[in-house]
Amino acid sequence: MMEQAVKTHTLKTVGDIWDRVASGEKTFEVRRDDRGFQKGDVVVLERWHVKGATGGLRADMDGSGYSEKPKALTFKIGFVLSGGQYGLEPGYVAFSLQPVDAANG
């Protein structure tokens, strides 16, 4: 059986949710499964702002959309739950975020 290549997924994450991930309070993601998320893949969460009450991502003064805080957090995907079961809608996925050990990559 051939092992699947590890993918890196870079995802925009709104500031208050990003902050909860950075603090360790939030240890999972729920996303539309449009990227084929798999256990062992790498996820890079980039911190973005939401524009006003209507939502939408807002770019900062430099136009990048990044905030003044650290721009990204990197994790490996652990357990993956595919949609269509346990109350998760089809087409979505929930997965755990595992810290990346700098020594072991």
What does this structure look like?
The structure is a single chain. With 105 residues, this protein is mostly beta strands. The protein has one domain: Hypothetical protein (Archaeosine Trna-guanine Transglycosylase, Chain: A, domain 4), CATH 2.30.130. The chain is 9% helix and 40% strand. The protein contains one helix and six strands, in the order E-H-E-E-E-E-E. It has one helix at residues 15-23; strands at residues 8-14, 28-32, 42-50, 57-58, 72-82, 92-99. Strands 1, 2, 3, 4, 5 and 6 form a six-stranded mixed beta sheet that branches. It is globular, with a radius of gyration of 15 Å.
List the defining traits of the structure above.
105 residues; Archaeosine Trna-guanine Transglycosylase, Chain: A, domain 4; globular; six-stranded mixed β-sheet; 1 helix; 6 strands; mainly beta; 9% helix
The CATH C-level name is: Mainly Beta
What does the largest sheet look like?
A: 6 strands, mixed
Q: Helix/strand/pairing class, anyone?
A: mainly beta
| Rg calculated over all Cα atoms | 15 Å
What's a quick, concise take on this entry?
With 105 residues, the protein is mainly β.
List the helices and strands and how they pair.
Layout lengths: L7 E7 H9 L4 E5 L9 E9 L6 E2 L13 E11 L9 E8 L6
Parallel strand pairs: 1-3
Antiparallel strand pairs: 2-6, 3-4, 3-5, 5-6
